[in-house]
Amino acid sequence: MAIINTTDAQFQDTVKDGLVLVDFWAPWCGPCKMIAPILEELSGKMGDAVTIAKVNVDDNPETAGQYGIMSIPTLKLFKDGVDVTTLVGARPLAELEATIKQHM
């Protein structure tokens, strides 16, 4: 499944069904740029099992504030609209895969 961009207005609809890994990021963030290709690879490996969504915190401060995002990248995994886990900082592919599989 392709990686999607979501906004404050779309966020709740984006995370309401299934597993959704949300990447809170900003274009000026170095570690955010480092994790981008890892998320692309994860998307290819996991297919339709998980949706990967990106939230630009500069453009969507309401959602970032609602979830207490203090540093980026922050990855939050949602299952059917419920925030089930949070990972802060760039993480390796294997860790992201394992985290998602725990919640399948």
Layout of SSEs?
Layout: E1 4-5, H1 11-15, E2 19-25, H2 30-46, E3 51-56, H3 61-66, E4 74-79, E5 82-88, H4 93-102
Parallel strand pairs: 1-3, 2-3
Antiparallel strand pairs: 2-4, 4-5
Average pLDDT, rounded to a whole number, is 95
What is the level-2 CATH architecture name? 3-Layer(aba) Sandwich
* CATH fold name: Glutaredoxin
The CATH superfamily is Glutaredoxin
Largest sheet, in brief, is: 5 strands, mixed
Considering DSSP H and I runs of 4 or more, what fraction of the residues is helical?
25-40%
Order of H and E elements: EHEHEHEEH
Low-confidence stretches: none
What oligomeric state best describes the polypeptide chains here? single chain
Account of the protein in words:
The chain has four helices and five strands, in the order E-H-E-H-E-H-E-E-H. It is an alpha/beta fold. The chain has a single domain, classed as Glutaredoxin (3-Layer(aba) Sandwich). The protein has a five-stranded mixed β-sheet with strand order 1-3-2-4-5. The protein has helices at residues 11-15, 30-46, 61-66, 93-102, and strands at 4-5, 19-25, 51-56, 74-79, 82-88. The chain is globular, with a radius of gyration of 12 Å. Strand 2 (19-25), helix 2 (30-46) and strand 3 (51-56) form a beta-alpha-beta unit. It is 37% helix and 27% strand.
Which terms would index this structure?
4 helices; 104 residues; Glutaredoxin; globular; 5 strands; alpha/beta; 37% helix; 5-stranded mixed β-sheet
